[in-house]
Amino acid sequence: MNYPSKHIADSVAEFKKLPGIGEKTALRLVLHLLKQETAKVEQFSSVISAMRLGIKFCSICHNVSDADICSICSNTMRDQSMVCVVESLREVIAIENTGVYQGTYHVLGGLISPIDGVGPDELNINSLVKRIQFGEVREVIMALSPTMDGDTTIFYVSKKIQPYNIKVTSIARGVSFGGELEYTDELTLARSIATRLPYESYLVK
Amino acid sequence: MNYPSKHIADSVAEFKKLPGIGEKTALRLVLHLLKQETAKVEQFSSVISAMRLGIKFCSICHNVSDADICSICSNTMRDQSMVCVVESLREVIAIENTGVYQGTYHVLGGLISPIDGVGPDELNINSLVKRIQFGEVREVIMALSPTMDGDTTIFYVSKKIQPYNIKVTSIARGVSFGGELEYTDELTLARSIATRLPYESYLVK
Fold first, then answer.
1. Whole-model pTM?
2. Which among A41, A51, A96 is the nearest to B7, CB-wise?
3. Among the four residues A28, B3, B133, B172, which has the most C-beta atoms within 10 Å?
4. Which of A8, A54, A71 sits opposite B51 (nearest CB)?
């Protein structure tokens, strides 16, 4: 597409780099910003720039943080003996927003994926092993996607921490609450029969 | 939602202000930017900031421009006696990308809309009248949406320029090329029968 201004063309090109944003959506966003007051657009760009420059990663769990140690790792009210292993920040936010988990996290920064060329060394696995080796961790909860990459990662990580003889669990896999049995895939259904629990366990309290 | 960093929360809030972007999409965009190199994010924000600060509006047609007079109004190869009246920049870009129009534009900056409280004085109508009064305009083509607001605007503008006795036309309204007759609404169908032309007019050359 041709644009009547280089500023418009450049801005559209920048927005198009974002995931899920094509040329038409990019143009819509640019035209929206164009209608805003200069100060508001200035704020938009400065907040985003400050975010990338100012963000820190917690030196313990690798979660994003405004300080060297994140608010979860430094919170003495939380159970520091429980570590929930997640792929990324996204899962930390999702689990935190459920409000039921009182332990800490460990952000791997990805999953082991031979197809995408991601090996264990590119993930924050060694720092997890060190946390277990020198810390007071009693249980590691694997909260990874139930996919091939997720399972490969669970397998690798659990092998690595096996020597320290701590409890390794995984978040439950089964039929979604509110889901319809007839639309559930066969693997999930078959596994959810094999891993059944007393029905009281599933009652929402 | 709670976020582990104020930078993340602020950036999500900024993206959420854009049209069609909710909290989840905003977070996805922020996490994407977080994974990019600092220089790339810096470029993203500076391009957008420069766009809003550097953009000019053509003093003749109100189209966006990098100079005081846009590249269309200053192009002597284009027919300056033909003015296509459009709602916004978006339509200029759409028509320019068809590559068939060789005249100039006039960007109204909106449509007259009693419901939204937009009156004629808030639109670039007086400058259009001046262009006609003091210029060499022979034809004004109304390229506005076939809606109540569009028709109200066409009616108002045509009344305003009536004294100068120039040709006022509208882009054709009818069944879309490639559209199926059975899915066309009745009003379009009825009007397209009433405004029929010799079939040769519609053959794609």
1. 0.75
2. A51
3. B3
4. A8
- Is B204 a residue whose pLDDT tops 70? no
Nearest CA in chain A to B56: A5
Q: Give chain B's end-to-end CA distance (angstroms, integer).
A: 56
Give the separation between CA A40 and CA B37, rounded to whole angstroms: 25
Task: Tell me the pLDDT band of A129, cut-offs 50, 70 and 90.
Answer: very high
**What is the rounded CA–CA span in Å between residue A116 and residue A106?**
22
Q: Which domains does chain B have, with CATH numbers?
A: 6-54 (1.10.8.420), 75-171 (3.40.1360.10)
- Percent of chain A at pLDDT > 70 equals 99
Q: What is the pLDDT of residues A21-44, one digit of tens each?
A: 999 999 999 999 998 999 999 999
Q: What is the pLDDT of residue B139?
A: 93
Contact list, A36 vs chain B (CB under 8 Å)? 52
